[in-house]
Design a protein that fits this description.
The complex is a heterodimer. By secondary structure, chain A is an alpha/beta fold. Chain A contains 6 helices and 6 strands; from the N terminus they run E-H-E-E-E-E-H-E-H-H-H-H. Chain A is globular and about 40 Å long. By secondary structure, chain B is of the alpha/beta class. Chain B is about 40% helix and about 15% strand. Chain B is built from 13 helices and 15 strands. In chain B, the strands form 3 sheets. Chain B has a 7-stranded mixed β-sheet, with helices on both faces. In chain B, helix 1 runs parallel beside helix 7. Classes of the chains: A alpha/beta, B alpha/beta. Chains A and B meet through helix 1 and strand 2 of A and strand 8 and helix 10 of B.
């Protein structure tokens, strides 16, 4: 089983991202579970959302303490939230920022990867909404989910042009982070 | 377990609350009345949307100003012969308290989902089961769901049990708030055609009808009141085999079985048995699998029906264990015990069986229940099996620094 924690601020769609990721993983033939940090959603406040992905049906109902992957939607959270908390040593942290990982000086043994998701979102979607974009980056960085499944989940949630633009931005983020792996 | 792998092609990834609202819809209710309260809100929002979209035919959704009015509206509607549904939690359920007795005493098969939540004060919106456990003596059937699928599947089952002419009692389908209501998972949305096959239309024996006047729950003096109470108890006892039979029939039609009155998991040769109700069972099963992999004989007893209380089935399931630990997401203040623990002990007392039973109250106000906590309880239970009871019942984790 793989566990993913998403950090964002209330209103950035962290919970939606967790749900879309669960949907995409299910499309890939896996079982999944998505849930918010219950009851603390306030616009602008730091929030978390979680996804579990497994080959077997998931029974576990506790919160996630030792994630395999962390996604950070807003780099300003690094100043106030311990986003690396509990992450496994061989885990990956994906952060939305134009900075290079080494400049962030995060104290973690996990691999840190960055992608300027805000820029991708502004260029393709026209709005600084990065939750779906970061799922593309997640697919590229981890290989845990097919990028096509992410796009399918997003297009099912957001129909028409909005869905199309999001799918394009997802592919762009996927390609960018794949490029960094090479 | 509840997931049928053959169902995978039919599954969609959706929220527990949506699955429950959908289940309520395909049960074809005639009257819905509810007042929104966290974490039940998504259920009634979805039902409102179904109504607005014309997806629930022959149904009236009565907007009210409180939970007291919601349940009162359903008492009237049910007495007039309608299939009725509501959902609530916590303070909303406590506000219904007086009317819950009326619904049961009038023998009205109202079905209600409880998105279990802690009670105030201090105010807390998170999950435990204090709210519905505190209504245990109101005469309602109470079933507790382990996962999202069961929370939905429980509704047609509960209607079928509640509306049975030998039962005719209202019922609560209890699901852990947030932990089940706000989680997205792959699940099967109940099919309308299968639900129709499983659950026929409600045909009440007695209805409020001006052309054929009769009174419901009007007045009973000391010379007759006791018999009404007796008959309610008889109805509860009649529900015991019905709950088993209905769960089995559901399994035959839908291909999923979540247990009848109870459900046993790896208890066949278990020396330690952990008992609980609701979503905590999944976490317990994961821990028990780890113990089993190491060759340790640990099992899990899911209690699905709390009212009626399945004494016989529980006795049979735990009598050969060396120790039983009962986990309760509630406490009866003044006993230092959770309700399931107290009642389990009580039903073993005259059973010529002297196994040690220990209790833990756990997860109050949504405190997360971790794998390590379950493992700690199993270790303590093993200790009791070898050297006897030291502490009979306790809070599982109290932060001493806050006291």
């Amino acid at each position: 089983m793989k566990e993913i924690r998403i950090h964002g601020r209330g209103g950035q769609g962290s919970v939606t991202a967790a749900e879309l990721l669960a949907g995409a993983a299910f499309t890939d033939g896996k079982f999944s579970q998505a849930f918010p940090a219950f009851g603390v959603e306030r616009r602008g406040a730091p929030v978390q959302a979680f996804t579990r992905v497994s080959d077997e049906p998931i029974r576990l109902r506790s919160q996630i303490y030792t994630p395999d992957y962390v996604i950070v939607q807003d780099a300003t959270l690094l100043e106030t939230v311990d986003i690396a908390s509990g992450i496994k040593e061989n885990g990956i942290i994906i952060i939305n920022t134009k900075e290079n990982p080494e400049n962030l000086k995060l104290e973690t043994k996990a691999k840190v990867m960055t992608v300027d998701a805000t820029k991708v979102a502004m260029e393709i979607i026209g709005r600084p909404i990065v939750n779906t974009v970061l799922l593309g980056a997640f697919a590229g960085a981890t290989g845990e989910v097919e990028v096509e499944s992410i796009k399918k989940a997003v297009k099912e949630r957001f129909s028409g042009k909005v869905g199309e633009k999001n799918a394009k931005a997802i592919q762009e983020a996927y390609d960018r982070i794949k490029g960094k792996l090479a | 377990m509840a997931v049928n792998l053959e169902d995978k092609s039919k599954m969609v990834v959706t929220e527990g609350s949506y699955a429950v609202a959908h289940a309520a819809k395909v049960c074809r209710p005639n009257v819905i009345s509810a007042y929104p309260i966290t974490p039940q809100t998504h259920i009634v929002e979805n039902l409102s949307k179904f109504m607005a979209d014309g997806e629930i035919p022959n149904c009236e959704y009565i907007n009210v100003e409180s939970e007291f009015s919601a349940i009162s509206a359903l008492v009237g509607a049910s007495a007039a012969g309608a299939r009725t549904y509501s959902a609530t939690t916590s303070q909303g359920l406590e506000l219904m308290h007086e009317v819950l007795f009326n619904a049961a005493g009038m023998r009205l098969p109202i079905v209600m989902t409880i998105a279990n939540r802690a009670v105030s004060a201090p105010i807390n919106i998170w999950n435990d089961q204090q709210d519905s456990i505190s209504q245990r003596d109101t005469g309602w059937l109470q079933l507790y769901a382990e996962d999202l699928q069961e929370s939905a599947d429980m509704l047609p089952q509960l209607y079928k049990i509640a509306e049975d002419k030998e039962v005719l009692l209202p019922g609560m389908a209890c699901m852990d708030g947030f932990i089940l209501s706000h989680v997205y998972e792959p699940l099967v949305l109940l099919e309308q055609d299968l639900t129709d096959e499983f659950l026929p239309a409600y045909e009440p024996e007695y209805v409020l009808d001006p052309k054929n006047p009769m009174s419901f729950g009007a007045f009973a003096a000391p010379d007759t009141y006791e018999e009404f109470r007796y008959l309610q108890e008889q109805a509860m006892q009649n529900a015991l085999p019905k709950i088993e039979a209905v769960a089995k029939e559901f399994g035959e039609i839908f291909g999923r079985f979540h247990g009848g009155l109870i459900d046993e998991y790896r208890t066949e040769d278990a020396e330690v048995i952990i008992m609980a109700m609701g979503s905590i069972l999944g976490t317990i099963k994961d821990v028990v699998d780890e113990y089993r992999a190491r060759g340790e004989k640990i099992g899990v007893l899911k209690v699905r029906a709390f009212r009626p209380f399945p004494k016989e089935q529980i006795r049979k399931a735990i009598k050969d264990a060396a120790v039983v630990a009962v986990l309760d997401k509630n406490i009866s203040i003044g006993t230092n015990e959770g309700a399931l623990f107290t009642e389990t002990k009580a039903c073993m007392y005259n059973a010529r069986c002297d196994i040690p039973i220990i209790g833990y109250t756990i997860g109050h106000g949504g405190r997360d229940i971790r794998l390590e906590t379950i493992a700690k309880i199993i270790e303590e239970a093993k200790e009791v099996a070898s050297s006897g009871i030291n502490t009979e019942s306790q809070f599982v984790e109290v932060r001493e620094e806050l006291l």
